[in-house]
Amino acid sequence: MTLHRIGWVSVSSMLKALVLGLIMTGLTACGAVQHMMYKTTGDVMVGFAADHQVPFTLATEDMGINCAMSEALTPMLMSFGRVRDEPHKLAVITYGSAGLCAEAMSWEEELRYLRAIKSQDANEAEDALIAQKRLNVVAAKRNYIAYQHLVAEYGEPGGECPELEEELDQFIWIMGMVSGLQALNNEITSTTGLGVPKNIAAKVERAATCVDDDRWWGVPMALRATIWAMLPGAEPKGEDAMKRLKMAAKKGERAGVRLPHVFQALAYFGKGDVDNVKQVIRNHVKAKKKKDADPDYRLLDELATTLLTAMSDRMWTEARGYRTPVGGLGTFWDDQKESPAEAIDLDDIL
């Protein structure tokens, strides 16, 4: 009886162990299948984004939709890095775009600050300044993440040039360098130490030579010349940063991707040369009327217009207390005594 019971217990235990083992094996198999499904889905989604979503988006010109897409899709695309290799290339684009979104919001706070200063509202000015700095912290973090993904994919810029055989790689290289510079600029504007390396500018200046200047609308040279113009002692002997920027601007105008205008305006702005900043904006508006944007890169040409509009808005607000009038980009309050763009009909406001 005892032996029988012992035998039954042993058999029962063996059956339980076998069932438990089968269940665990089944769960493990299900987990493996699930992981494979996720990985396949991730591969498809990341591949689709690189092959179709990015080119489609670059061919559009709605900056607002691009911002919303970047902020909304970045977490989903990056989450696939849990089941496959991290999509570093896409991260450079999406985080960089999301950084621009935060920076665009900071511009609005800067305008609010300038209006408050003009109306001598100290509390409003202080609140706007705080909000602007907070948004620049967000922008700095996003842009620096974009730059870190650039480093993860291609190696640290500034040394030996990586292999950039595909046009997408070259484009990402340029955008990643811009994000690095923006991260540094955002950190400075935020007056907060976020750990963005201060030598990014020097690295970008060297790394910009890794891509063809003519193919990429003069942007690589514009990047280098802007750094020369804004960092004391950075300009190489025999070079002229402002002449290089003019040459880059012409390349951008001919290509229909006028991003070099932005770098040119920033360099003049850094020197306090407001008259030339105005002239760059005028030239941009004229160039857009003469030649349509490159259909494959409409978004970048529109980005240039958006950034120059932000600079124009800042100058208009400092001078008049309101931003650039509708249809008035390229015109300024002191062009003539009263222009149609400047005149305000109070009936329309009320």
Q: What features would you describe in this structure?
A:
The chain has helices spanning 2-58, 63-79, 88-118, 122-154, 167-190, 200-207, 219-230, 241-255, 260-270, 274-290, 298-320, 346-349. It is globular, with a radius of gyration of 27 Å. The chain folds into two domains: 62-211, no CATH class; 213-350, no CATH class. With 350 residues, it is mostly helical. Helix 2 (63-79) packs across helix 3 and helix 7 runs antiparallel to helix 8. 72% of the residues lie in helices and 0% in strands.
Category from helices, strands and their pairing: mainly alpha
Overall pLDDT score = 88
Rounded to the nearest angstrom, the radius of gyration is: 27 Å
The ordered H/E elements are HHHHHHHHHHHH
Oligomer: single chain
Distance between the termini: 101 Å
Total strands: 0
Described by the principal axes of the CA atoms, the overall outline is globular
How many discrete structural domains?
A: 2
- Helix run count: 12
Low-pLDDT regions: 1-6, 339-343, 345-350
Percentage of helical residues? Answer: over 70%
Portion in beta strands: under 5%
For the sheet with most strands, the description reads: none
